[in-house]
Amino acid sequence: xxxxxxxxxxxxxxxxxxxxxxxxxxxxxxxxxxxxxxxxxxxxxxxxxxxxxxxxxxxxxxxxxxxxxxxxxxxxxxxxxxxxxxxxxxxxxxxxxxxxxxxxxxxxxxxxxxxxxxxxxxxxxxxxxxxxxxxxxxxxxxxxxxxxxxxxxxxxxxxxxxxxxxxxxxxxxxxxxxxxx
Length: 181
Description:
The protein is built from 1 helix and 12 strands, in the order H-E-E-E-E-E-E-E-E-E-E-E-E. By secondary structure, the protein is mainly beta. It has one domain.
């Protein structure tokens, strides 16, 4: 009788452990960015907590320029003296013909000439490094007052070391007012 009881108990405990581990949140759903280089191939993974967007109207082009930042620390207008804020962050400059930043895929093109669905500036600040992007894409999905960002950017250093910047953010967005110039 004791042998059957212990087998049932062990089976029950294993079943509960498997059930709970199966319900664990997937790593791909956490907010982060990582930088990996081809030399060390060890990613530096940094947690993202905040997202902000600042919009400028480019009157002579009929388009809007958006500054998008995801950061490990809070963001306020006073800290938005680009290119960096306090903490570790990713900064991207995007263009769109819409008054609100639309969902879609934005392609990095340093010669974009303010074309819609393009980005012409992208960099990451992470201690002890700094990365300027050379190519890549950003996908944006709006769902009410939430935004989902999924991005992958690349660059090659002077020493021919390939660097990949990738990340994911899903959460609310802090829309900031254009600072007075």
